[in-house]
Amino acid sequence: MSAQTLLSGGDKWYSYSGEVFGDVSAPATIQMIFIPNTGLRDTILQVQPFYGQPSTSSTNNALGIEVKLNDITIIKEQPGNGGNYRGNETWSVMVPRQSQIEVISLNTSANNTQIRGCNVLGYYL
After folding, report:
1. What mean pLDDT do residues 91-120 have?
2. Does the N terminus or the C terminus of the chain have fewer Cβ atoms within 10 A?
């Protein structure tokens, strides 16, 4: 889990989780990124989750992602079959100034050891 890092030009920032995975005791959700305050300017935020190879190809085993803005879910996706889903999309969302961002991995008992992570890039307006 990482914090917000301002790029040298001052008009963009980033945060990345690195590779995150658990074991059989991993909870149903794992926080990957938490930014308590995005700053004094509105932001266009790009959310880029990534997932490793699924542990099994059975149904109801896919990892998912939830993005919360000020404790309100704005993106939530967890498909049923990890064997046919790579889940490496990018979403863009508008984030008001001084907002809280949280990116959470959604798990099932069949995929706790699967690698996942997330990168976010914010463009100040």
Report:
1. 89
2. C
